[in-house]
Write a structure and sequence with these properties.
A hairpin with a 4-residue loop joins β2 (64-65) and β3. The protein starts with a helix and ends with a strand. It has one helix at residues 2-26, and strands at 44-54, 64-65, 70-71, 82-91, 97-106, 115-119, 125-126, 131-140, 155-163. It is built from 1 helix and 9 strands. By secondary structure, it is of the alpha+beta class.
Length: 164
């Protein structure tokens, strides 16, 4: 019986050795290498601002702009006068943009109540490679009957675009 056990143990050892050699013969190590690269470009900017409507006798000034800032200086003469500026926003990047929110703060505490601003809707979406416009109009209210002591009113606006 002892010899049968010894033979069984030897046979099992031989089988395990053969299986180990067989596994090694059929095992293969595979190497996987890769690189990820970001190629998208974010570039939403102001590409133009120009006066498109100026009441007679008024001065629209020379609007100035950079990629992220636009400035204008309207000079209004009399009640009913207005100057309208068209602002062009461009997506010069490769990632679609969406308007998260826009804020326009008008100086109501220190500014002239005789001047009001009207802002058309800025673009909600700006696909890559496209541009869109909106307008800002400065109005000298028609119902003003005398020249106010405060003659200016400031507006500050911000557009917050995010990737879509």
């Amino acid at each position: 019986m002892k010899t049968n056990k010894n033979i069984l143990i030897i046979v099992l050892l031989i089988v395990i050795s053969v299986m180990s050699v067989g596994y090694s013969a059929f095992a293969e190590e595979l190497d996987i290498n890769g690189t990820a690269q970001i190629t998208g470009q974010w570039n939403v900017k102001i590409s133009n601002i120009e006066a498109i409507s100026v009441s007679e006798g008024c001065d629209a000034g020379q609007p100035q702009y950079t990629d992220t800032n636009a400035t204008f200086d309207a000079k209004l003469q009399k009640p009913g006068d207005s100057v309208t500026y068209e602002v062009t926003v461009e997506n010069a990047g490769s990632i679609d943009a969406s308007l998260d929110h826009a804020t326009f703060n008008i100086d109501r505490d220190n500014g002239s109540p005789a001047i009001e601003y009207c802002i058309s809707n800025p673009p909600d979406e700006l696909k890559a490679g496209n541009s869109a416009t909106f307008t800002i109009t400065a109005n000298y209210k028609e119902d003003v009957t005398q020249v106010p002591s405060v003659k200016t009113r400031l507006i500050e606006g911000k557009l917050f675009f995010v990737q879509k």
